[in-house]
Specification:
CATH class of the largest domain: Alpha Beta
CATH topology of the largest domain: TIM Barrel
Strand order of the largest sheet: 1-2-3-4-7-8-9-11
CATH architecture of the largest domain: Alpha-Beta Barrel
Largest sheet: 8 strands, parallel, barrel
Structural class: alpha/beta
Helix content: 25-40%
Number of helices: 15
Radius of gyration: 23 Å
Number of strands: 13
Strand content: 5-15%
Bound molecules: flavin mononucleotide
Distance between the termini: 50 Å
Length: about 450
């Protein structure tokens, strides 16, 4: 097999109690992991010992679910706010990247530009922003809305949001702060640029009250895979987090997204495609499968049925035998195509209700030995299904420990993964260029609040 010139990119997707819905019940899991900083610190340092590219914190701005009988059986009701958590982890790590999720639907661009620029400074250039537009219905209710904006509107807002943020990150040229004690001047006002953005969704004057950050712009990560999501990624994302379970689908996604970059004057390797994966490592294949089986057995049916209902329309299957077939379902008022997909899967593979929800709970799980998991990573990488992976851990910290102690050395031995960090910044690890300062056409110069003189575009 021809060897690619680059190396795998690997992020650790950290969730305190683990990413499997009942990971928190695993004998080696920290059940209070979502609110235990010492536990997060240990995980961050383990991931850094493994030379992983970044810590990745997914997020929704609500409890994950509002059906109390299932919510109380999951560990999805409490979690740290990602930027706050990563700011604390920045102080106890040296090199690993720090990627936080933040939604464009329930934030203002100035806040986001400021917080991520601050994290980039605090961490010496290790910040990344996972831009999401929000999908979980419960989030809307926390922000005075009954439902999210429609999909197209969310993306239109996201696009303008991202432009404003980028413009704010270029409020100051890199060498604007001269700090000249003798002259009594802290910055060179010629190198201050006021954005004065007036758009469809936002009016933002600027400038940002944070200097241009070590990476110029924190790394932009994106996780949408619809047509609009792919276009947004092609236009501006530097990492895309995607859910792909079959190599042929991953390769199709990979080539589709990479092919879109040329239209925006971008090089294909300036966008890293990282599918999610949740490895469960065993001493043998059977051992790894047993570990998964033991975990799945901890799923209370109340939780399992809710997982199904959330994915396939809000129906109640509690009256049906769990080890019997899926009954015919009433029409869904959520996504008809997703409901049909689930019915098709159940019929095609003759799955019981229990097997069906177990399938959802284990989406992304790959069981195997360090060798077979490395084989899979290698095949996906070498055949251009992925540039690397966002690696989740079914339970924590055990799943992460196994990955770093057993799988990473195997990948390193094969020359597929680094043995030392490439430099101080997340862009260094990912092989991404540092964006040069861009003087925007809308920029005006002069007093921030007083009269302004227009600059030549
Ligand atoms: C692998 C993956 C991870 C995601 N993680 C988050 C997340 O942490 N928070 C969030 O609000 N949305 C998350 N999303 C949702 C996406 O950001 C996006 O809003 C959603 O997929 C709808 O966009 P699409 O229609 O373009 O796919 C994730 C999506 C994918 C595929």
């Amino acid at each position: 097999m021809p060897r690619r010139p680059d190396k795998l990119k690997l992020n650790a997707l950290l969730y305190g109690t683990g990413s499997h819905v009942v990971g928190w019940r695993h004998p080696q899991a920290a059940p209070n992991g979502n609110r235990d900083f010492a536990h997060y610190r240990r995980m961050a340092q383990t991931a850094e010992r493994g030379k992983l590219d970044a810590l990745f914190i997914a997020d929704v701005v609500a409890t994950q679910g509002s059906h109390i009988d299932s919510l109380r059986r999951s560990a999805r009701a409490d979690t740290f706010e990602p930027l706050t958590l990563l700011a604390a982890l920045a102080a106890v790590t040296e090199r690993i990247g720090l990627i936080a999720t933040a939604t464009t639907t329930y934030n203002a661009p100035y806040h986001i530009a400021r917080k991520f620029a601050s994290l980039d400074h605090l961490s010496g250039g290790r910040a990344g922003w996972n831009l999401v537009t929000s999908v979980v219905p419960d989030e809307a209710a926390n922000f005075g809305a009954d439902t999210h904006l429609a999909h197209a509107q969310r993306y239109a807002r996201a696009d303008e949001f991202r432009e404003v943020v980028a413009g704010l990150w270029d409020s100051w040229e890199d060498d604007a702060f001269i700090e000249d004690k003798a002259a009594g001047l802290h910055f060179d006002h010629e190198k201050l640029h006021v954005l004065n953005h007036q758009g469809t969704h936002f009016r933002v004057r600027g400038p940002l009250n944070v200097a241009r950050s070590p990476q110029g712009h924190p790394v932009l990560v994106q996780a949408g895979s619809s047509e609009a999501g792919r276009e947004l990624a092609a236009r501006c994302a530097e990492v895309i987090f995607t859910a792909q379970h079959r190599l042929e689908d991953a390769r199709a996604f990979y080539s589709d997204v990479k092919a879109r970059l040329a239209r925006y004057g971008r090089q294909p390797d300036h966008l890293k495609i990282l599918p999610g994966v949740m490895p469960i490592v065993g001493a043998s294949e059977a051992d790894a499968r047993d570990k998964l089986r033991e975990l799945q057995a901890l799923i209370d049916p109340v939780l399992g049925l809710r997982l199904l209902a959330d994915n396939a329309g809000d129906f109640d299957l509690s009256g049906y035998p769990l080890d019997g077939p899926l009954p015919d379902l009433p029409p869904s008022n959520r996504s008809k195509s997703r409901q049909q997909g689930i019915v098709d899967l159940a019929r095609r593979e003759n799955l019981t209700i229990r097997q069906l929800y177990e399938r959802f709970a284990s989406a992304g799980v790959v069981t195997g030995t360090p060798k077979t998991i490395a084989d899979r990573f290698e095949e996906w990488f070498e055949t251009y299904g992925a540039d690397g992976f966002n690696v989740a851990f079914a339970w924590a910290p055990g799943g992460l420990d196994d990955f770093v102690e057993l799988v990473v050395p195997e990948l390193q031995r094969r020359g597929l993964f680094r043995t030392e960090y490439e430099g101080p910044t997340l862009r260094d690890q990912l092989g991404l260029p540092r964006p040069a300062f861009v003087r925007r056409p809308s920029t005006v110069r002069g007093d921030v609040t007083g009269p302004v003189s227009a600059e030549a575009p």
